Fold these 3 entries.
Entry 1:
Amino acid sequence: MAYDIDMIKKVYSQMTERVEKAREVVGKPLTLSEKILYSHLWDGNATRGFTRGKDYVDFAPDRIACQDATAQMALLQFMQAGKKNVAVPTTVHCDHLIQAKMGAAIDLQTANKSSHEVFEFLESVSNKYGIGFWKPGAGIIHQVVLENYAFPGGMMIGTDSHTVNAGGLGMIAIGVGGADAVDVMAGMAWELKFPKLIGVKLTGKLSGWTAPKDVILKVAGILTVKGGTGAIIEYFGEGARSMSCTGKGTICNMGAEVGATTSTFGYDDSMERYLRATNRADVADAANEVREHLTGDAEVYANPEQYFDEVIEINLSELRPHLNGPFTPDLATPISEMAEKAKKHDWPIKVDWGLIGSCTNSSYEDLTRAASIAKQAVDKKVKAKSDFGINPGSETIRFTAERDGLLQIFEDLDATIFTNACGPCIGQWDRSDRKGEEKNTIVHSFNRNFSKRADGNPNTHAFVGSPEMVAAIAISGRLDFDPTRDKLLNEDGEEVMLDEPTGIELPPKGFDVEDPGYVAPSPDGSEIEVKVASDSERLQLLEPFKPWDGKNLTGAKLLIKAFGKCTTDHISMAGPWLRYRGHLDNISNNMLIGAINAFNKKTNFVKNQITGEYDGVPAVARAYKAAGIPTVVVGDHNYGEGSSREHAAMEPRHLGVKVVLVKSFARIHETNLKKQGMLGLTFANESDYDLIQEDDTFNIIDLENFAPDKQLTIEVVHADGSKDIVMVNHTYNDSQIEWFRKGSALNLIKLQNAG
């Protein structure tokens, strides 16, 4: 029986009425996304239609998932909310704090020692508040969720941007910051601006070397890293129905890389097969009873231009394998064009590592397709020219793959089987051949390839591809290798070619596992005490942020003007910094250290206007804070792209930043800033970014009149006494302005619970 089956049946029991009511008030056929959104309104049945991209709407998600790096701060906040139990089914998954180095057994043992305090904290908090706990080594959060919790037509939020992976099982699953999750854990509504809708019509069928990963690599090239911002991407068509459930999950997972709120597919036979294969026949039976509501209306898909804000069509039969990168996931290159492009841009041709796995591509099918290539190399006496690393998605996947001989195939190529965890994908990689200043290339089947992300090295050029393409390229050792036409030289000096990959959608013998790694919470956690040592380097109880004083902001100094791409990795790096995710003051020492200072093009080197000297960003911020001087951060387009990590908002708040002023925001980061009581503002005139000088002081002269849909006025005072008036926009509604007034959304929750 599935977890939380009664909750799932309740969702389905009210779906027909809610969908029919929504169709009535909207006055037209509905997309799948609209059906799920309208059937999860906080107030029940829809009474009016909502305007996409404009109306803020309160929703009631069915469940929450948290990974260990973000769960710490989320649960530290929840502990302040005054609740005895979480209000909706919630799980915590320990997958980020395990460093890949020697191999699964040793690495997991090391992590259990080095992060014992954090794992113990998470397990005890989970036990106390009714949260399901998945132990270190149990698997990567999104694969575990797909195998155990995702269900067609459901709504889930998770404290990781790749929560969207569950769209592969027909959910609306959205990545959020911890404060958003706390709202829902505390039994409150969750607010989201009603998304726009992008329809992707898939025709034809995948074949040969082309994989589901190539669909999203192509879409990323079309939409770019911000083209999906504020939108749900809904896939449909014969091509969508022809793909496996886990293939759909891969596509939805990497939708985060185009800024999409989430991505989803309609319920079909592949999802039913997957549910039954993962011991959830009860969910499949229940879903079949409301099957018509678990996909878009027929008229929508017949005439998509009338119902979506944008429509993209991709013929899978014509789609070719891609590699995306380096340094950004939307730089899409067909394999056939890589040789020419790599030469033009002087990308290192020699490939040092091929990495397969992560939450994006770690299913049984993924491993079988990659293993089919690896097996050919062994059989044809071709030795891999690159190092190999494999991260299985879950203990169930690992156990089943080992039983079926898949892992042995990789080991025959001298691959290292890492723990069932994120590993290199999130920067948790102690790379054995660590590079210095030398440019180098790696290929992987992950989702992100920002500078420094995998190994902390800015000279590493990372390219994203399907597991089978990564395997082929790693075997060849060359970035410009095209397996559809290029030959390899084997150990006997013979030229051989790799045949097309073959895969198995679901294990013929079924999935199997001895210990999946799940720990159920205590039925009554009221007597459980959660301890946090006062001298801990890893954990720190939170102090509430101070409320707004009700006055205009004056005398704020520029902390940094960030130049170009500034992702959450630039604002709050992962990798070794993950160890401080539960200690706000310690992790604040990484605040914006990866951002490029527009005035000297250096990282972590900004001017302290008090002393006139240059120092690291956190040090300068602390100096201003100690002097009682508020600060402002200025940024470019799509500021805060990437992860859901709310640390990128909490650290500036903790170190005295009052305003983040940019050309445009990534969705999750803008919400995180609002939740923490900060001002996230955008230039009304983007060219005003160029007016900002290194010694500037900022005054918001009409903050006392802060109101929805009303611009604010910033007086920018330059070092010579001259001034520029800069008009700025914001997207705060009345509720969000109240978060700002109270100092944070959490402060407001505490006041409401106290009342």
Entry 2:
Amino acid sequence: MDVDIWAWVGETQQQLSEAGNVGLAMALGDLPAQAYEGRYPQLDVMAPAIAQQAEALELPWLEFYARYWHLVGRIGDRAQGAVAVEDAEQLLAFARREDVRDCPATPAAVEALAVAWANTDGPGYAAQRLELLGPAIEQAEPAGPAFSGLVAQYVAALVDAGRAAEAVAYAESAVERLRSAGREASWELGAESARALLADGRAEGALDALQAAAAFQADDPVAKEHRDGVRRALILATLDRLSEAVDALPDLDVVGDHPRVFVEWAQAVSKLSGSSQITNTWQLGRVLRQWIDYFGTMGGYRPRVELALVAGDLAVARQGVWQARALADLAQSAAAELRDDTGVAERVAALRAAAEATSEPEAPGPEAERVAYFDAADGYNADPERWVGWLAPLSGRDLEATRRHTTTLGFLGYPATGADIYWKMLVDTGDIATADPDDVAYLTTLLIEARQDERLEQMAGMLPHAAKHLTLARLHIARERWAEALDNAEHAVAAGAGVEARRIVATAAQQLDQNAKGAKALLEVLDELGDEDTWRMIVMATAAEDWQTVRKGAAKIGMPIKSTEGPIEEEMGLIRVILPAPDGGRRQVLSIRTGPATARLALPQPRGMEYNAGDLVVFDPQLLEPLPEDPEEQQNFVPPFAAVSILRPGGYTSYFFDGAAPSESDWAEFTEVMAERGWPMWVYSDENYMVTHPTTGEQIPGVFGWVAVPPGVSPVEVDALLDDATERWSHPLAWLDLAREVDVEVERHERIVKEYGL
């Protein structure tokens, strides 16, 4: 996307704001940052909402823009594969519509589909990618913004097609075309050129190419550093420059949030695992297993197979024989989803052979005593991967060993294996109906983690009434099927199930906005509740305005309440309430705590927000930031809490003001006038906000903010008061939106805005 599209974005934002769509305008410009910075919860909410509004407003370019950035957030750093292919295909079809195809950004839809295919199965889709990208590159001008990205994907497709030498030549030719057009290659194109050289067996050239690309601008600047580090480490490891490779390799806590580099990072670690600087541990195996599952969920068929094989080799190297065998099985079954499985069967066979040739570590004691040894092991330093192998001979025969073995399997990422063992022992034998509740809970957890829902439902049908409904409630709450969870949990409670069933009732009821029901379920066992459950009850009772229950909960946790009946309205100090912003982010609003879980917003908010000063909100009393350790910092600490809902709107209306900052005395008088009337006012500008002196042209301090007025105060009254309060200032203040609303001195306010550059 070039300057034309960004100019269009700016114009569209202005048009939307003037039409009253302030929230949409605010969110629009933030979508690329959300996609690149990994703010996916915001992106996944805001982008579809913008696309939907754009469709309703008949703005197809805007709809394409929103849908494109949402897709980038999915197929870029998150590396979604098959789950995103249909959306990518639909976006390309949309881009080819007559009313969309002239948008400067539409070639990006071709690139997006190529990326989605590559994420799914790079070699398997190589021919389709080349066929798709070729015509788009022919139509793209090297001087245009789309060329470099399309070419980078073409080079990647050539590499995946096994045509590495051709990919190198193509990349070099493209760089020359870009240079002739006065443009520089992107970092992504340089990095793909390096990948092609590495695949062609020219690792030194690959390192030189990556080094040259370091100076290039990246299409995804946020990801450039860690992507460069991973690829550099892989190339250096291939060159056997192990120390340099280790230095270049980003830490796991860096790459753990970036699925796009999972495979290359694992490949680099595999090459470096013999180095004294890289430790091949069970923790590494557990992480790789989680990554394998991630790609299984996201339809990353090729990455799933590749990671399984790499993780298997690493497991063999640390004598994790059982895990290597399991990973070989996984790679073999996952290969069935590949469009091109060339070479996979041979690699699986090699992994199996390596596992068979490897001896497991010697057990710490005889079989009969291993449960005792397990229980006595240091929970911090013990190796759970080894214990899975040591307990395996007993698992399925000895209940205590089975419990430890299967739950450890689940912990390491193999819940289906653990569930199979437990199932044979308890379900196939018919013992599940009389099994210990803990065993039912363990098996339920394993089945849920293995996503074997039908099997779990089958087991539930064999259980007594209370246990059956509690088991189903656990399943439904895990899948966020709130109505089904509530129904089954209520049946379990009625049949005498314990506190867990009531917790599920409370959780599901809160999600379904049935707060009174959830609070009641917990109140009935108040004496059995800990602080966390008691606070949950307080929050739900507050939302239901059941003040008697709130008082009982407050008494349980030792929080004094002065009043004895009716709504709780007390001043309990300042807090920060965290509320959603129109751009999908979060907004902190200074508020006065009025009860255990209520606060009244103290600051005026811009027009278009769903809340304002004077609103009474319910908040979750769990601190979002830890209390500072320093006593002085504690005194100034204003605790932050997440808002749950608006309990009662205050009905306040906000008006925007903007202009040159007045003298300190004038400002003090202005704020005093606002305070006397009880009109919350807040300055949103900082010391960096400057405006233009209309006579000298110099930059002078400015001020802008919002003032909120309670119900019953007319816009005319607000205009008159602002006029009286600021008429003696050396520089005038503007409140253009308000002036237009009351149709008073509109031209004067427009002139102020223009002259001061507001």
Entry 3:
Amino acid sequence: MSIAAPSNPKEITLRGIILGILITLVFTAAQVYLGLKVGLTFATSIPAAVISMALLSAFKDATIQENNIVQTIASAAGTLASVIFVLPGLLMIGWWAHVPFWPTFGACAVGGVLGVMYTVPLRRALVSQSDLPYPEGVAAAEVLKVGMASREGAAEGKAGLRAVVWGSLTSALFAAGGAAKLMAAEVAIFFRTGAGATGIGASSSLALIGAGHLMGITVGIAMLAGLIIAWGILVPLMSNLTPLAAGVEVADHALGIWKTQVRMMGAGVIGIAAIITLAGLAKPILGGLKSAMETARKAKLEGASLDRTELDIPIFIVGLVTLLSMVPAGWLLASFLQGGPLASLSVPLVAVGVGYVLVAGIFAAAVCGYMAGLIGSSNSPVSGIAILTILGAALSVGMVGRSVMGPEVAQALIAYALFVTTVVLAVAVIGNDNLQDLKTGQLVNATPWKQQVGLLIGVAAGSCVVPPVLELLNHANGFVGAPNLDSISDQPLAAPQALLISTLAKGVIGGNLQWDLLGYGVLIGLGLVLINFALKKSSNNQYSLPPLGVGLAIYLPSAVITPVVIGAITGYLFDRAVEKKAGGEAAKRIGVLVMSGFIVGESLFNVALAGLIVLSGQGEPLAVATGMGEGTSMTVALIVGTAIVWGLYRWSAKSGQAVHRS
């Protein structure tokens, strides 16, 4: 086959691989912590691209395509951290006391490789021949183009690196203030509503403000709608049906109703929104496969020349790697069952598990990839995919294990279903990231197969980082709902996604799932789907209310969602304020990097704090006695947080003007 390659720019280099892996170590640790604390992760492509450009600018022969490979490696690894939405469930049900390295590494690596392979045939249908907006992929490409194009771009690259550093330092110091008890970790108010109660809370977290800015106003408004539905309608309604008992605090009553009833409705909203998304994807999936097959046949039989920017990993190799990956997948699942109460059923269970990974993984990767194109990888419906996957896995393995049911067998089946779901989720999130990165590559004239190799390198790096960071946090803090027999701190991490996934698995296999509450959530979700459809149609796709965003806000704690909504609104107001001024576009990009720094700084501080907890053996090693009351510490947190956000937004605007003048 002859290949037309008008140019052959430097792309995969040793220095680029090393830099990508080093950035991976930082961002994966940050992602693992953030996901365990609040159940959300963030896109690492843009900050990785900025750091790469700033460091590779020392080399005169650095290219935009080389920087693109660096961000591709780093983004793949950071995305892979989303497996922590499921893995802590194995600790919560008491199956694991510690996080073993090799099974965790294997689940991440096998799932990640399959995620890359499954989405290779979808590139043409969902990227090059699609009008999907890919907001984060396009933004990363713009950052790369600006940073490499001119003297002004070089100035912006330096300002961007300063933005990441400033954001990281201030958020780390702000988090340290909370750890030292100099300010409240959460600002909250709860009150009675007739015989019931409700309220609202907000974590003192710059990372969540940053996440809201990155998600954007559309998702922010959807989450605001979810907050109103959850805490303005459902919690007051359900708590009035279960009146406040004597001696019970108002906050405890409201939070109890939310945890036991409203949250499950949120899961139903997320689940139905994900199913409806899946139903609309059959055509692009089949179209992508058909296009890939036709291109391969055309190149082979007709001797057609393909441009470098259209070269994927050959479809034959994709198929071969996919089939070969089933061998380590089967070995991994068989090892998980070895010596346990399900050992006698290991052959049928492994067969079901491998088949499930193969089939469910394809659908999960396609759905997440499509949603990454639609609303960005940060907002992709990973929660919904995980919910659907655990329901399918629990039903599948439950049917096989029915013949030998008992308490120990039930726990083992739940654990096995969670482990299979971990592999499928790794497939989904890497598929999600792959298409986003390939869009960036398309816009900077990268070679697709080289990016796909970069993704595989990122998968390997991320798979090495996730297990030790997860075990460090398990030993230091532990997780809500887990025995935490060996944890030092008495403040376990919420791990909200893993808690829900393990609850669903126990409910399906134990036969006591709250189907009525899930059903109510499904009805709410269907209503939201109709509202979203009507809104998009009446505004010619200008406005939307993503049902998944609403469902997440019903399902996640208000303490998590409120600062995300605030971040989305303040980010929108900042962008509107600077867009018509000189250097406005540069200011917007610098603002994004400050917010990325907020996430990185706070998350890395808390990973380091976990290490300090383990080394010192103290649950709160930085705490100092201040004598401040709860109200005072909340006020301090509010004032300091507001000053930091306002000050750095103002700095971003001035930096944008300075870049414009340079």
